[in-house]
Automatic annotation (TrEMBL):
It catalyses: AMP + ATP = 2 ADP; ATP + H2O = ADP + phosphate + H(+). It comes from the Eukaryota. This is Adenylate kinase isoenzyme 6 homolog. It is an enzyme of class 2 (transferase). GO terms for biological process: ribosomal small subunit biogenesis; rRNA processing. Belongs to the adenylate kinase family. AK6 subfamily. ATP binds at G15, G17, K18, S19, T20, R113. Interacts with small ribosomal subunit protein uS11. Not a structural component of 43S pre-ribosomes, but transiently interacts with them by binding to uS11. PANTHER family: ADENYLATE KINASE ISOENZYME 6, POS9-ACTIVATING FACTOR FAP7-RELATED. The keyword Nucleotide-binding applies. It is found in: Cytoplasm; Nucleus. The keyword Cell division does not apply.
Length: 178
C-alpha cells in the first residue's frame, strides 16, 4: 500500500520454504524489501501469551504483534513470513503467496527439523487439507492470492523469479502514476 515498496505476505505450512523464498526475494527484488520472520520476531520480542508444551509452540499476542507491525507495514517494502496470514488486515497486503508442498516431502523436511511426531502429523494434515490456502482465500481478494508449488530448487528459483517480476511490475505501475 506504500509507494516505497509492496507488502508481500509469504505463508504456508511450516517446512514449505517461506523463509528461504523471503531471503532470496530480499536479495533479488528490484524494490528494497525487508524480511520479517514473524514467528522468530514474536519469540525475540516476547509477544506471546504462553508456550504450549503439548504443541511446542507459542500463543501469540496478536494485538501486540499487529500494533508493532503497523508502522513497518505502513512504510512499505516488507515481506511478512509466517505460517498463518489471517491475522494480518486485508488492507496491508499487496500480494499473498501461499507455498505448497507434497505432504510426504513436507514430512521429511519436518523430521529433519526434529519436530515432534504430533506436530509433524498436525502440519501434514493442514497441508493435505489446504488449511493455509483456504485461510488466504477467505482473508484476501482472489486477485492478490497466489498458490505456488515449493518442492524443489527449480520451484524455488521459478517462484522467486515470478515474484521479482511482480515487484518490478508493481514498481513500474507506481512510477507511471507519479
Amino acid at each position: 500500500m506504500s509507494s516505497k515498496g509492496p507488502v508481500i505476505i509469504i505463508t504456508g505450512t511450516p517446512g514449505t520454504g517461506k523463509s528461504t523464498h523471503a531471503q532470496l526475494l530480499v536479495e533479488e527484488s528490484p524494490v528494497p524489501l525487508r524480511h520479517i520472520n514473524v514467528g522468530e520476531w514474536v519469540k525475540e520480542k516476547g509477544w506471546f501469551e504462553e508456550f504450549d508444551q503439548e504443541w511446542q509452540s507459542y500463543t501469540v499476542d496478536e494485538d501486540k504483534l499487529l500494533d508493532e507491525l503497523e508502522p513497518l507495514v505502513a512504510a512499505g517494502g516488507v515481506i511478512l513470513d509466517w505460517h498463518t496470514c489471517e491475522a494480518f488486515p486485508e488492507r496491508w497486503a499487496d500480494l499473498v503467496v501461499v507455498l505448497r508442498c507434497d505432504h510426504s516431502r513436507l514430512w521429511e523436511r519436518l523430521e529433519k527439523r526434529n519436530y515432534h511426531l504430533k506436530k509433524i502429523q498436525e502440519n501434514n494434515e493442514a497441508e493435505i487439507m489446504q488449511v493455509v490456502l483456504e485461510e488466504a482465500r477467505a482473508s484476501y481478494p482472489a486477485e492478490i492470492v497466489v498458490e505456488l508449488k515449493s518442492e524443489s530448487m527449480e520451484d524455488l528459483e521459478a517462484n522467486v523469479a515470478r515474484i521479482v517480476e511482480w515487484t518490478a511490475s508493481w514498481k513500474s505501475e507506481r512510477s507511471s502514476e507519479a
